[in-house]
């Protein structure tokens, strides 16, 4: 799941490559069809729009971060998708600022999670805490069927962690 504009390239392309190398098919969704643009200039073909995702067909959902996603944390379509995966007890994953979307959707209550922050911006940590998550200052955190990661530097570990869980 990417924001149509300004998704974080590494958080999409690195895990996607890891998933495909492990033999998984990846479909990319956003709020509209076309070519989504990454902050660093990468392009992602949107295979289907969010409302067309049939949760039963997938093993996991991956929410990518970036400044575009930061603007979509309250998006009902994205939150509803996360909730639908949660209802089906499927793997729900998010990186960078996207764990805040999971928190706002009610999925992180009483779960350990991480999220992007900086010395000057702790806003997303506060969102997690306000919504009942247990914040961990770690690169990747697994809590039940939820995996969160704190940003582009964690993209490889994030992708590898998801594969490990899917193969168990």
Using the CA coordinates, give the radius of gyration. Answer: 14 Å
Estimate the helix proportion, in percent: 25-40%
Strand content: 15-25%
Provide the residue-averaged pLDDT: 97
Ranges where pLDDT stays below 50 over 5 or more residues in a row are none
- Number of helical runs? 6
The first-to-last residue Cα distance is 23 Å
Order of helices and strands: EHEEEEEHHEHEHEEEH
Beta strand count: 11
Cross-sheet strand order for the largest sheet: 6-7-11-10
Main beta sheet strand tally, sense and closure: 4 strands, mixed
Question: Tell me, what's the shape?
Answer: globular
Task: Give the quaternary arrangement of the chains.
Answer: single chain
Structural class of the helix and strand makeup? alpha/beta
Description:
This protein has six helices and eleven strands. β3 (34-38) and β4 form a beta hairpin. The strands form four sheets. It has a four-stranded mixed sheet, sandwiched between helices. Strands 1-3-4 form a three-stranded mixed sheet. The relative contact order is 0.18. With 168 residues, it is of the alpha/beta class. The two termini are 23 Å apart.
Report a brief summary of the structure.
With 168 residues, the protein is of the alpha/beta class. 34% of the residues lie in helices and 22% in strands.
Topology record:
Blueprint: E1 5-7, H1 9-21, E2 29-30, E3 34-38, E4 43-46, E5 48-49, E6 60-63, H2 67-70, H3 76-87, E7 91-95, H4 98-104, E8 112-113, H5 123-130, E9 134-135, E10 140-143, E11 146-149, H6 155-167
Helix pairs in contact: 1-6, 4-5
